[in-house]
Known about the structure:
CATH superfamily of the largest domain: HUPs
Mean pLDDT: 87
Radius of gyration: 23 Å
Oligomer: single chain
Number of strands: 11
Distance between the termini: 59 Å
Number of helices: 12
Helix content: 40-55%
Amino acid sequence: xxxxxxxxxxxGLQQLVLDQLKQSNLELQPTxxxxxxxxxxxxxxxxxxxxxxxxxxxxxxxxxxxxxxxKDSQVDANFCRDLSQKWGVPIEIIKASELQIKxxxxxxxxxxxxxxxxxxxxxxxxxxxxSKIVLGHHLNDQLETFLMRLIxxxxxxxxxxxxxxxxLYLRPLLQVPKSQILEYLxxxxxxxxxxxxxxxxxxxRNRIRKVIPNLQAIDHRLEHNFTRTLIxxxxxxxxxxxxxxxxxxxxxxRSQIDLKKLFILDQFLQNQVILTWLYQSKVQxxxxxxxxxxxxxxLNSPNGGTHQIYPNWKLEKKQSLLSLSERLE
Length: 329
């Protein structure tokens, strides 16, 4: 049983999607790319977007990635093609082997799938003048992602990272529980396909998905309380970001960090300042505790000199100033 004051009813999904899209400057985006896997979430999303189309005036293009991981993966692609033709929506179906962009060392198969989808979406978006991509992620996806990152020891910013609007991506269903999406499908008699890999224990997300019903049995307010917690985490992240930018402005002198001013700050804020400085300097890196330990070991050394942090980047400490330089190929 959901808390009706905080969770969106099935009957209100269309208005919710409409409101979300109005907030995303769609007048600058005449075309929307819709991620269509053929599953329940993406089918409901496409149906909702079609119903909102006349009120906002955008064009729709569906995009489907055939991972080619299953011998019958073409069945899902055919379903998406037939559905799109039935609803009058153009569709781009791309096989993983046809992608122009190949992911580099993605790690797990789960990460590989995400990298392939992102590469496919970038490719399709580029073909349509960098149009926005709309995805069917919902509240349960948020909860699963939160628990996955919690297990993996994510930072605070990582825990609250999934946003309704993020770069190329729009996620208008993020506050909607999966149960209400399923109700919408039944209400409108919409068919969909189920990818059997969604049941495989090879993927961490699937294992976590099977745990969530037990959490709901412990407390039926799980989704409502999770939403409240996530809002607080995101608000905390926004506050930290503002404070970090203020601190960065205080310690940076002509692109160099004044270490005397940096070391006056709380250690947590020191870490945030260094990470933000690296981001703003366009360093391609993966934030981690080990990277921060490595950097601060160098910074706390009484000696000056240089320290390589990535193949093409090095830190240089001279007196009380820290600079960053890139070796151009």
